[in-house]
Write a structure and sequence with these properties.
The chain is of the alpha+beta class. The protein folds into 3 domains: 100 residues, no CATH class; 237 residues, no CATH class; 157 residues, no CATH class. The chain is 39% helix and 17% strand. The strands form 6 sheets. Strands 1, 2, 3, 4, 5 and 6 form a 6-stranded antiparallel β-sheet that branches. The chain has a 6-stranded antiparallel β-sheet with strand order 15-16-17-18-20-19, sandwiched between helices. Strands 7-10 form a two-stranded antiparallel ribbon. Helix 10 packs across helix 18. The N and C termini lie far apart (54 Å). The relative contact order is 0.16.
Length: 568
């Protein structure tokens, strides 16, 4: 079976389709169209496109397109004369590579193989003819660019009004904090740039602070992506550019010289390129097995120097001290009657009323149904003791996030669960989004994306609804830590920049076409792509600085209200 990206299909496969017939499943109405594009015009808007599968056998092409109640199926293609194709230069040879699109579930077909990785690599390489590496470095002011403050205000819709000044205050603390909170602004800017034509399940917010340490079910400490609120399907390079911009802004804020800032970005791109090239020929099972443990002298294939090892050791020691037992002593207290309650530390940790508490507990009971069945036995041995509202992060401030304290065998067996509202991702206006059924519930979208991108995940990940709002659930700060990359310089900065590029590539390779991305990125022998992304990141850092100044001026003018204390 040959599978192509949307771009490749438009130029090649659909040119060969003679006609399609189908039937509306509900009304039994026959439908006839010459192309799938024409067939799509029959679909009512409420029926999103779901799948498009093709299979060629001899002179027959089987086309399956499903969307809502519509199904177009097998029909014979009017074959063009092969000699005429060769004369016109449009013939498809057996050696022509075919790229694999991202399927929705995906639908499993174990009877048809896939094209070799080398053919897909060549297909990715051909995409450079349309979007050369140099095009990825262009960032110019768009005259139609909306007011960034308007985009930020739009992102505040649906949030808790009394917490928006706190969000504004946190964004106003530094250019990097502004970058973190202004994901909607960067999403607009990225949507106006070139696209390679290869999509992956993208993190959507892969700046440097969204990489960190966390514990596996086996209590090992690993380094990986750790925030997935913006996860969706989109171009792989948008994630890489978000990482590059984060590096450029964070290192500029730290006062590093321009050459060192540029070197860090190029090192991250280099790590991405080299890792994709290494993973492209590997089996999918090998790719999915890979993790990055931090208790080894190497991270992402690089040997750590003494300074980097010391940074990792301190971060790991701190992460190991962050567990349910230590969190209990920090955020909870025992009452005189022997019961426990969460402390009040406004505005970060505040009590909730009885109705909200009951809603959260009910939501957690529904959440249990999204866990693998064997893990429900584990959760069933706990009960909720107290619930509080907890403010987290920068971009997430204002959304509803609750901290639930649960006990099992005794008060020495504490479990903290974070129940966090999931909102529409920043890239949603510019991308098709996650497929059905994950697009129907934002919490499910986040958890599905996390399970796809993370090498090892929290065993208690799940989702639920409270009222009419979607939430996702995870453990709160259990063996979690951070690498202080913004305070690094020299060899340590380059090492972790490379490592973050490596982690991003591995995450993309789990669902995307690593061979095609490798073909587009190149081997890394030259730094054309690295230089282009570095040019873009430096230019975007300057744009972010200008937006940050405008943001602070808007606060001073009174248009936006900021809390006096950002409570960091």
């Amino acid at each position: 079976m040959r599978r192509r990206t949307r771009v490749a299909r438009r130029r090649t496969f659909w040119q060969r389709v003679g006609w399609l017939e189908g039937r509306h499943r509900k009304w039994s109405r026959p439908v006839r169209a010459r192309t799938v594009t024409e067939a799509w015009q029959w679909y009512p808007p409420r029926y999103p496109r779901r799948t498009c599968r093709t299979a060629e056998r001899g002179s027959t092409v089987k086309v399956v397109v499903e969307s809502g109640n519509f199904e177009f199926m097998e029909r014979t293609v009017i074959q063009q004369d092969v000699a005429a194709d060769a004369a016109s230069g449009s013939a498809q040879s057996d050696a022509d590579p075919v790229l694999a699109p991202i399927a929705d579930f995906p639908r499993i077909d174990l009877r048809v193989g896939v094209e070799s990785w080398d053919k897909r690599r060549h297909a990715g390489k051909k995409l450079r003819e349309e979007v050369p590496h140099a095009a990825q470095g262009a960032f110019t002011a768009d005259p139609d660019r909306p007011d960034p403050i308007t985009l930020i205000e739009a992102a505040h819709e649906g949030r808790q009004p009394h917490l928006i000044p706190l969000r504004v205050a946190r964004m106003a603390t530094s250019p990097f904090a502004f970058l973190r909170g202004a994901a909607h602004v960067m999403a607009w800017d990225l949507s106006r740039g070139p696209r390679s034509g290869i999509d992956v399940v993208m993190n959507g917010d892969a700046h440097t602070d969204n990489f960190g340490l966390f514990g596996t079910p086996q209590q090992d400490i690993v380094l990986d992506l750790n925030d997935f609120d913006e996860v969706t399907i989109g171009p792989w390079e948008w994630d890489l550019k978000r990482l590059a911009a984060g590096l450029a802004v964070a290192t500029a804020e730290a006062g590093l010289p321009a050459g060192e800032r540029r070197g860090a970005v190029k090192e991250a791109v280099c790590g991405y390129q080299h890792t994709m090239r290494r993973l492209a020929p590997q089996g999918s099972l090998d790719v999915w097995y890979q993790t990055t443990r931090v208790d080894t002298p190497h991270i992402s294939g690089l040997r750590l120097d003494a300074e980097a090892r010391a940074v990792v050791r301190r971060a790991v020691d701190k992460a190991r001290r962050r567990n349910n037992r230590s969190l209990l002593s920090q955020v909870a207290e025992r009452r005189t009657d022997g019961s426990w309650r969460l402390k009040t530390d406004a505005p970060i940790l505040t009590p909730v009323d009885d109705a909200t508490r009951e809603g959260v507990v009910t939501g957690l009971e529904r959440y249990a149904e999204t866990l693998p069945r064997e893990r429900r036995f584990m959760l069933d041995r706990y009960h909720v003791v107290d619930v509080a509202h907890r403010v987290v992060g920068v971009g997430s401030v204002g959304t509803r996030a609750y901290l639930a304290l649960l006990f099992g065998n005794s008060d020495a067996d504490a479990l903290f669960l974070q129940v966090k509202e999931a909102v529409r991702p920043a890239h949603a206006p510019y991308l098709p989004g996650m497929p059905h059924p994950y697009a129907g519930h934002e919490g499910e979208r986040v958890i599905y994306g996390q399970r796809l991108l993370q090498a090892v995940g929290d065993p208690l990940l799940g989702w639920t609804s409270i009222g009419d709002r979607p939430f996702y659930v995870r453990q709160m700060k259990n063996l979690k830590g951070a690498i202080p990359l913004a305070r690094m310089s020299g060899a340590s900065l380059l090492t972790f920049s490379y490592a973050y590029g490596t982690l991003l590539a591995r995450a993309h390779a789990r669902t995307g076409d690593a061979a095609a991305i490798t073909g587009y990125c190149g081997s890394g022998k030259n730094d054309h792509l690295g230089s282009a992304i570095a040019d873009w990141a430096i230019a975007y850092g300057e744009r972010n600085a200008a937006d940050f100044d405008l943001f602070r001026a808007t606060i001073a003018s009174g248009r936006l209200k900021a809390a006096e204390d950002p409570c960091l």
